[in-house]
Amino acid sequence: MRKLIFLTTVLLCFGWVKGQQTEFPIEKGSIFILGTPSSGLEFKYIHFPKRNFIIKRGGIADYKGIIGKKVEVSQVVSSQNGETEIILKPLDGQRFFKVFPKVKADYEKALGRGELIPI
């Protein structure tokens, strides 16, 4: 009887955990919105350059201006350890911080932390 109860509990927990995971298919041309940074002031899983590099190149280092901006996936790269890295470019044709035409992002982590919001 104990084995039956244990097996039932394990199966229910596995089904509940599996049901909580939602995957969004990623492909070239997918559109996302940039959400709020997960670490307060700077994005952690979208790899924007540091503020001093933005300023040296003549850009405006203001992260508030890119929140809510629509971006498009221009390339999808899968690594051997199972992580997916994507390259994002602005949908409106402008550059990030008026300097950078594209940035890299860790897809699963950025999506899980709310830095990328699917449309």
Task: Describe it.
- This protein is an alpha+beta fold.
- The chain is built from three helices and six strands; from the N terminus they run αββαβββαβ.
- Strands 2-5-4-3-1-6 form a six-stranded antiparallel β-sheet, covered by helices on one side.
- A hairpin with a 5-residue loop joins strand 3 and strand 4.
- The longest helix is centred in the first third of the chain and has 19 residues, at 2-20.
- Mean pLDDT is 84; it is low at 17-22.
List the keywords.
alpha+beta; 6-stranded antiparallel beta sheet; about 120 residues; 6 strands; about 25% helix
Question: How is the topology of this model organized?
Answer:
Layout: H1 2-20, E1 31-34, E2 46-47, H2 51-56, E3 70-78, E4 84-90, E5 103-106, H3 107-113, E6 116-118
Antiparallel strand pairs: 1-3, 1-6, 2-5, 3-4, 4-5
Summarize the structure.
The chain has 119 residues and is of the alpha+beta class. 27% of the residues lie in helices and 24% in strands. The chain has a six-stranded antiparallel beta sheet with strand order 2-5-4-3-1-6, with helices on one face.
